[in-house]
């Protein structure tokens, strides 16, 4: 696992549990520490493995750079410099015909950096304020989603020079007095998080209006799933995650020092994951292990695993089940006694 910290340090961890104990600490394999000549000077906002192999990885930072690293030597292969703070970058997980890194910065222009040529080859213009989150579609290699402080989410086909494909509209085109004042806005605040579902058919967005919205990514329609109030106090990009291979699918959203777990298509708040001692800044889901990883200001990265249920014979009714068959996520964690913590 690749991680970047607010101190500019990058650490690579071995996730394998060699002890076979239920609670264990992962070992750091290597790191780009403070003494490294090319360490980021400010907070690392995004890190990502090169999608096709782990011999290369990328990192971007508030120091206005995107760096391309050789994993084996921990030396820099390339550096891209920007005029403003870098909030987010992303490489397509499926692209075979391009090597573009999408970068969201303090500028309203979305930058596309070409790893093959080493230049910022494209600029996507349409947003009016800083771009806080970017994500390539996991279904179509030329489709990019961008989220901005201008309350808008735009979908682009990066082959087109004529502007974006669509701007998501929370009102689905219904022109009331309220919606005409906020034409084609995805949220009533800064949009600082977006995440595609693993099949690419839907897109989740989060804004500082304390709302999360689920969109049909091919029609651009707001599906109107109600998640209630989704607390979001982040001044920068919010890295949240969705599950892959679960039924139902879940969204994992940092919420203060906890992680809120929602069912994506019904909007139900399933549980709050508690374990961090300070604000959680990011979540990542690992589909191969079905594990969730979260990073917090308490300087901890925690791994969360699903509680396994024992198989239950079909002829046993739910009422006969002993308590341990319940997934802890569905148990009532409140104490009825003042004496218990």
Give a nutshell description of this structure.
Pfam families: WD40. The chain has one helix at residues 177-181, and strands spanning 2-4, 10-14, 27-32, 44-49, 56-61, 65-70, 75-81, 86-91, 100-105, 110-114, 119-124, 131-136, 143-148, 153-157, 166-167, 191-196, 202-207, 211-216, 241-242, 250-255, 258-263, 269-274, 280-286, 291-296, 301-304. It is mainly β and 341 residues long.
General description of the model:
The protein is mostly beta strands. It has 1 helix and 25 strands. The chain is globular, with a radius of gyration of 21 Å. Mean pLDDT is 89; it is low at 320-338.
User: How far apart lie the N and C ends?
Assistant: 35 Å
N-to-C order of helices and strands: EEEEEEEEEEEEEEEHEEEEEEEEEE
Tell me the number of strands: 25
Helix-strand makeup class: mainly beta
Biggest sheet architecture? 4 strands, antiparallel
- The chain-level mean pLDDT equals 89
- Give the CA-based shape: globular
Q: Helicity level, as a percent range?
A: under 10%
Low-confidence stretches: 320-338
Radius of gyration: 21 Å
Number of helices: 1
Question: What percent strand?
Answer: 35-45%
Largest sheet strand order: 4-5-6-7
InterPro entries: Rad28/ERCC8/Ckn1/ATCSA-1, WD40/YVTN_repeat-like_dom_sf, WD40_PAC1, WD40_repeat_CS, WD40_repeat_dom_sf, WD40_rpt
Main location: nucleus
Pathway: Protein modification; protein ubiquitination
Pfam families: WD40
